[in-house]
């Protein structure tokens, strides 16, 4: 294994002529590609390729093939699914949905291609010329441009093709790496002259200047009474005693799999995380708490201060990294409940479950205001309307952290994180990590305003966004992070970077990014194994003075202030003032107890959230008197469809695995309940519900049933992989899974014209489903309900009425675009193109569904309004 590492490293930097292309056939986004030709793709403008290399395992971990047909899997995972889970891929492949996907990169400048087994890193290089399957976006090559893939003739399901790349040296001819630098100095490190709206700093860097203003409200972050004074003084005293190494250590977050507690301690590293696909090998609360204990003890001691590391994780819809915990509907569904109290309660429960497993910090809730449902993270957005996001996200924060002046950061609370600042939901074309184009006022009105409420509620951390604003990456945007967030908005907490987000800043790499520190990212989130390289490089920059000392002190001050408030830093003076040190993870409330994750009260709250999030789009024909729902519990029903009895599917992305867990058995989710199981449980009137598993070429006999309950929906996806770029249609019938399901419904309707059909659509965003709506007597959007599918039965059988209202417009046309910022507010017109925000039928309502256009357009040629 070691020799392999050496060999692949040796290949880096060499110009070679081959590479391969990437198409994640497993990922839902590529399923709809209808690509005709197979085979070798011709590239119009050959460019240079480096041989791609992954960081292979240097620890000498046992090499083992997976039993599944994954030849490129280097190491298999443990856990309930045995060795079917690939954890590490061979060189030249990246991990996607537990499978190894070939990857390619042509990199014009000859940089080391960013490649890791984490897909996130693979997706971009820093070159102004990209190979044909990727597109150029603000200094990065981004993969998965469906249009390009299509024109290149990829066949559906074909995962790779060859792409020949030819070298181009130094395209601009001046040796500059950073696009904002007009003239480079020696060694490509110093910029002599900056471009456009960048001005040169005395350190030879370029700082983005923005002369614009916006009307900022008067935001008042909480003060913590007498405590603030003591904390302020103690933190200042400790910071003055710290070495540069200790300071930079505190400003570094490494991945748990790459750092041992002893290394945390010897390098003063201040925080660690588990990545979306990382695994500690044991799915129990006890194992988690025990692990956390070891890291908590890896303290940094400065003078009389003891500083503990923080353990962070993406708990996106509940403690979603642990499949046995209580998982709630994703934010889009919670937005439809429009129930602030409920959302606060969900935040509180999430915190309790995190505390039980030793986690200190969740990178949630998302404050994005998605403006384009093509964005794969739309489901992380509470609403299309900024004010709704602000109102609900704030409650989530209060639930997690506790209310200021009540039990703020009490023993059952964790640190929350408002993300991603700013403009993540407003990128052009809904492209993940893309560019928001607009004025500061526009940015503020739609994408920054949701943070105001959370800042006032005392949110302690805010995550910088991957996206750019007018072409400048947020991680490197000092104006946005320092001038706006920290100064104008008065944010006193800390700014954490996203997953290697700093590496996307022009001129940066994963192991070097002074610009991001200067810009105001207080903690860099390092996904790569080489956290030490980052630490050393940044320390040496700090020593040389190429990072401003005051800025480092500002960052460390923020970090230690958050830690003191949370109880992860203590000194005798703090203790004397009654500011308590937090107990070791295994001594916290409920620590190590799986009963906390399974608590009936938690499950009941999740179920309540499910039933309140469902939005009924149709209930009978317009003008007709009979209403198909509620169904009687004395009836005889056939329940079928891919989402009927699959807890992984109904949970969507960010569920155990980054891109979701569709292949896990239901038992993997502990006390979770599928939609079908809930329906069966709801049949308390003597009726029956039979599950029918669809099999190709077979068709059920429906003649003796009173109704068909049909559960269809999208495959899980998360950031990036869930994007559907223009001009792909939003027609669910064009998704592979959607086409099959629409066909099934059509056949049922033809064979049993008078059978009642109730369709439940599980999706992360509004989809064009006119045909499916038309074929159904009742149609309910269930979003991504989480583990407590029983909430669906609660409304289906009339135990509870439907109260959910759309938090996003719903497209009645496959190519319609959302109205910017819900331009019509909460009461937009009902049109043939769109159902308005706030739409949702109760049992008392007459169906309003207009006559729908049911043409299936192959792809979008123009946007409609
Ligand atoms: C999809 O493929 C089929 C069969 O190859 C072809 O007839 C059809 O025109 C294609 N549709 C599009 C939109 O490319
Ligand atoms: C520079 O900033 C001004 C507004 O301050 C803006 O109008 C202009 O487009 C910006 N130029 C570039 C190249 O970003
Ligand atoms: C909390 O209490 C302090 C001191 O009593 C007060 O100054 C502060 O305004 C309060 N903060 C909030 C958010 O209520
Ligand atoms: C952590 O430190 C505490 C206090 O020093 C000690 O009691 C405990 O055993 C340590 N735990 C681990 C896992 O090292
Ligand atoms: C940073 O660290 C890495 C080692 O991890 C090293 O290869 C690199 O040259 C260092 N310096 C810069 C400026 O990136
Ligand atoms: C459903 O489609 C048929 C034609 O296929 C049309 O006649 C009917 O009006 C449609 N119904 C609705 C509610 O759109």
UniProtKB/TrEMBL annotation:
State the UniProt keywords alphabetically: Glycosidase, Hydrolase, Signal
> Which residue intervals define the domain Glycoside hydrolase family 3 N-terminal in the entry?
243-562
Look up keyword Hydrolase and say if it applies: yes
Q: Which domain of life is it from?
A: Eukaryota
Query: Where is region (Disordered) located?
Result: 579-603
Entry-linked Pfam families = Glyco_hydro_3, Glyco_hydro_3_C
- Residue span of the signal peptide, if any? 1-24
Q: Which GO terms describe its biological process?
A: glucan catabolic process
Which residue stretches does the UniProt record annotate as biased composition, category Polar residues? 584-596
Q: Which residues form the Glycoside hydrolase family 3 C-terminal domain?
A: 615-843
The terms under GO molecular function for this entry are:
beta-glucosidase activity
**Record-linked PANTHER family:** LYSOSOMAL BETA GLUCOSIDASE-LIKE (PTHR30620:SF77), PERIPLASMIC BETA-GLUCOSIDASE-RELATED (PTHR30620)
Query: What name does UniProt use for this protein?
Result: Glycoside hydrolase family 3 N-terminal domain-containing protein
Task: Recite the lineage of the species.
Answer: Eukaryota, Sar, Alveolata, Colpodellida, Vitrellaceae
């Amino acid at each position: 294994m070691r020799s392999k590492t050496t060999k692949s490293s040796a290949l880096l930097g060499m110009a070679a002529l081959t590479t391969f292309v990437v198409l994640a056939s497993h990922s839902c986004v590529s399923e709809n590609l209808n690509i005709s030709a197979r085979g070798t793709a011709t590239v119009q403008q050959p460019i240079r390729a480096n041989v791609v290399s992954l960081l292979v395992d240097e620890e000498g971990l046992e090499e083992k093939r997976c039993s599944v047909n994954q030849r490129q899997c280097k190491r298999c995972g443990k856990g309930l699914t045995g060795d079917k889970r690939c954890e590490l891929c061979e060189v030249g492949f990246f991990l996607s949905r537990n499978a190894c996907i070939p990857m390619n990169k042509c990199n014009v400048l000859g940089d080391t291609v960013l490649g890791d087994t984490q897909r996130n890193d693979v997706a971009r290089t820093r070159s102004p010329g990209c190979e044909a399957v990727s597109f150029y976006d603000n200094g990065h090559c981004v993969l998965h441009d469906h249009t390009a893939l299509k024109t290149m003739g990829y066949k559906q399901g074909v995962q790779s093709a060859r792409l020949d790349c030819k070298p181009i040296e130094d395209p601009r001819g001046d040796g500059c790496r950073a696009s904002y630098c007009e003239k480079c100095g020696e060694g490509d490190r110093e910029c002599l002259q900056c471009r456009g709206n960048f001005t040169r700093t005395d350190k030879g860097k370029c700082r983005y200047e923005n002369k614009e203003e916006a009307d900022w409200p008067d935001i008042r972050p909480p003060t913590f009474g007498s405590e603030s004074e003591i904390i302020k003084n103690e933190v200042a005293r400790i910071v003055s005693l710290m070495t540069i190494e200790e300071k930079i250590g505190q400003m570094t977050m490494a991945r748990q799999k790459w750092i041992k507690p002893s290394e945390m301690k010897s390098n003063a590293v201040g925080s660690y995380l588990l990545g979306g696909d990382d695994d500690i090998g044991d799915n129990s609360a006890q194992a988690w708490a025990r692990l956390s204990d070891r890291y908590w003890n890896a303290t940094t001691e400065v003078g009389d201060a003891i500083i503990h590391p923080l353990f962070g994780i993406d708990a996106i819809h509940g403690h979603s990294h642990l499949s046995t915990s209580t998982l709630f509907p994703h934010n889009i569904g919670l937005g439809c409940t429009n129930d602030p109290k409920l959302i606060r309660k969900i935040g509180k429960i999430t915190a309790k479950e995190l505390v039980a497993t030793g986690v200190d910090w969740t990178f949630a809730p998302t404050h994005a205001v998605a403006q384009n449902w093509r964005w794969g993270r739309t489901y992380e957005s509470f609403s299309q309307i900024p004010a709704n996001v602000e109102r609900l996200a704030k409650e989530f924060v209060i639930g997690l952290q506790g209310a200021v002046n009540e039990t703020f950061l009490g023993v059952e609370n964790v640190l929350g994180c408002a993300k991603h600042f700013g403009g993540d939901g407003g990128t052009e074309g809904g492209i993940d990590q893309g560019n928001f184009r607009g004025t500061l006022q526009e940015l503020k009105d739609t994408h920054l305003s949701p943070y105001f409420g959370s800042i006032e509620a005392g949110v302690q951390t805010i995550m910088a966004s991957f996206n750019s604003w007018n072409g400048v990456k947020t991680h490197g945007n000092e104006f946005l992070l320092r001038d706006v967030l920290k100064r104008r908005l008065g944010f006193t907490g800390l700014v954490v970077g996203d997953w290697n987000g700093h590496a996307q800043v022009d001129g940066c790499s994963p192991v070097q990014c002074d610009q991001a520190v200067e810009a105001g990212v207080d903690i860099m989130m390092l996904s790569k194994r080489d956290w030490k390289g980052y630490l050393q490089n940044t320390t040496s920059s700090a020593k040389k003075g190429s990072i401003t000392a005051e800025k480092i002190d500002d960052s460390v001050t923020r970090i230690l202030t958050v830690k003191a408030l949370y109880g992860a830093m203590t000194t005798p003076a703090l203790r004397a003032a009654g500011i308590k040190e937090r107990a070791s993870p295994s001594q916290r409330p409920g620590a190590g107890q799986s009963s906390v994750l399974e608590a009936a009260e938690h499950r009941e709250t999740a179920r309540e959230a499910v039933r309140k999030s469902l939005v009924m789009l149709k209930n009978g024909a317009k003008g007709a008197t009979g209403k198909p729902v509620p169904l009687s519990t004395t009836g005889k029903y056939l329940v079928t469809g891919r989402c009927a009895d699959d807890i992984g599917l109904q949970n969507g992305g960010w569920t155990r695995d980054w891109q979701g867990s569709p292949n896990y058995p239901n038992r993997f989710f502990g006390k979770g309940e599928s939609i079908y199981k809930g329906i069966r449980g709801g049949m308390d009137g003597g009726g029956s519900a039979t599950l029918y598993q669809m099999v190709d070429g077979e068709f059920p006999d429906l003649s003796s049933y009173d109704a068909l309950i049909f559960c269809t929906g999208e495959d899980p996806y998360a950031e990036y992989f869930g994007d559907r770029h223009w001009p792909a249609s939003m027609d669910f019938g064009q998704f592979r899974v959607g086409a099959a399901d629409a066909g099934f419904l059509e056949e049922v309707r033809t064979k049993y014209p008078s059978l009642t059909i109730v369709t439940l659509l599980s999706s992360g965003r509004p989809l064009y489903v006119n045909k499916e709506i038309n074929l159904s007597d009742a149609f309910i959007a269930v979003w991504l309900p989480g583990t407590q599918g029983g909430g669906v039965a609660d409304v289906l059988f009339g135990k509870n009425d439907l109260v959910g209202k759309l938090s996003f417009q719903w497209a009645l046309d496959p190519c319609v675009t959302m109205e910017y910022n819900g331009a019509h507010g909460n009461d937009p017109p009902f049109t043939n193109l769109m159902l308005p925000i706030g739409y949702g039928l109760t049992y008392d309502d007459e169906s309003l569904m207009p006559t729908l256009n049911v043409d299936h357009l192959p792809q979008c040629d123009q946007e409609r309004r």
